[in-house]
Amino acid sequence: MKRVTIVGGGNVGTNTAFFLAENGTASVTLVDIKEGMPIGKSLDLMEAGPLRGYDTTIRGSNDIESLAGSDVVVIAAGRVRKPGERRLDLYKDNAATVREIGEAIKRLAPDAVVVNLVEPIDTLTLLIQELLGADRRRVLGVGGLLSSTRIRYLVSAELGISPREVTALIIGPHRRSMVVLQDSIRVSGIPAAMLIGQERLAEIVDQARHAGDTILELAQSSTAYYAPSAAACSLIEAVVRDTHAILPVSVRLDGEYGVRGLCAGVPARIGAGGVEQILEIRLTDAEQSAWQTAIAELKTAIAEKTGRRIA
Length: 311
Description:
The chain is of the alpha/beta class. The protein has 2 domains: about 140 residues, Rossmann fold, CATH 3.40.50.720; about 160 residues, Alpha-Beta Complex (L-2-Hydroxyisocaproate Dehydrogenase, Chain A, domain 2). It contains 10 helices and 14 strands. It is globular. About 45% of the residues are buried. The model has no long low-confidence stretch (mean pLDDT about 90).
């Protein structure tokens, strides 16, 4: 069985471990610096196994050396947003944490596929890829996959149907300026706009853009973690099982969609080595304009927080 190490035993990291255990994807090691915490949480998860029907091995550790030889390393350690904060406001604090983890990955698991769950997703995924000096296809961020699943749920709730009948694809940076591909929002192949109207669909899309902020404001003490963990699990499963699934992921672009040297969400075929192929789909004029605006905003954000300007 493949081995997945999750660095960060908070809500997102622990729930990702739980989802991986339930579907039997891989053995899991949960690592966190807080003394005893990951060991206690893994024991709790293992004790749930007899009732939830899984026997996946989950172990906890306070030692970063435990990630040695991992097939997949998930980075889930970092400060989460407070109400009113932007994702970008987390960069300074989380970049320092991510650098430390990246150095450990480089030393202990240089061949692992790395999945980043730490905000700001696109900016830190780029930082990790550059720090590791790794093939860009092996360093992925969860962004568009999370936003897509939110739209799928909202459309299904509007129509009173199963969310499994709904498809949606979102590309671009994991920010409010993300690009929603309208024609991809379908219900069993039927364009959602035909069923609920273009105006109502636009309102749902706007809800999805603000979903993270809405959950943070309502929950107050925590950001979203069930949906992000589910998105992470889907991506990890595609890597571990080599499923060749088509998923929107944040990956460093090298000319695709007219962008170089930035990470942004794009549809990609995912397999054992990470991204097997980036799918360049034809955008409408409106989508192309929205993409260019979103990329320009991302470049400005990177310059603001890092002082680095990308052409």
